Known about the structure:
The protein is an alpha/beta fold and 183 residues long. The chain contains eight helices and five strands.
Amino acid sequence: MSAEAPRHVVASTADADTVLRRLIREGWSEQEGFALPGAAWDVTGERLVLHGRIGDPDTLQLAVLAAARGAAVVAVCEVDSPMGRALIDDLARLGPLVLGPGPVTAAPPAGGDDEATAGVPLVPEQRALLDRLAAGDTIAAAAAAEFLSLRTANRRIAEARAAFGVRTTREAVLAYLRQSRDE
């Protein structure tokens, strides 16, 4: 079976368009809205990407259900809003999640290019964990201090690595520190 269906939470329709163009080039079929056609539960083989704006709890529920059923999801939502945090938490429970449009090229930026990391949206849990890691805590200590399970902390850090387009936690911490310095 192929890799998991991608899940993106983006802040603007322009970012959503960028992600959709990339997914269509990779062979995904796009559909506006989050209601899945057909009665089959598992739609993984259909390579279907659903997209739209998350404006209410019902739409949020449809987007999470679509992702659980194997569809790719590109959701436009303000990540720092209560609705955005709920969406991010729910989608992150299903697997890898990319906040923002993700890498534009196949290769991650080498050496942490400042422009590539500018404005990467992170949820407060990710910021808190990265702050603690930057201060020298281990992932386990940072998780305990933030009242998170080690598994959740590892997932949040993995999401931050994906958002920054880097491979290691150390690179993610450095990219986060550069971004924080520039804000």
